[in-house]
Amino acid sequence: MVGENKVGAVELLDTHRPEGFRMLRFLGGATQETQRGNASGPVEEKPAVTAMRRFRPPLRASVTLESGQPVRVLCAKKKEVQGDVLWKAGPWRASGDWWERDTWARDEWDIALQNEGSVALYRLVHDLLGGGWFVEGTYD
What we know:
The chain is mainly beta. It has one helix and eight strands, in the order E-E-H-E-E-E-E-E-E.
């Protein structure tokens, strides 16, 4: 399940491209005490943090638009990733590497979908060069 080639440390690359990182060999060394600070001192309560779990590869989606805004999303591969858009933020436009062959441009939306009695938060991406829509991940 886990082996030498399946564990690593993330190195961020000098790019704004999605997935702009590479995996390096993991070199342990930090102890739990150095990671947490002084274990004998008081523990600060921190606010809740939301994290996005990426789908790899991103899920291809069919998106219904009204006035250029997503109002319904359907992913054939994951039935739970579908429904009416209750809330949205965006789009945030990102692009890069225009001087290279594999240039990229995209609009990103954060959306809340109503599906089967629950609400879930997702990152929706429109590939501006290829024209496709993808659900890139879900928020915890």
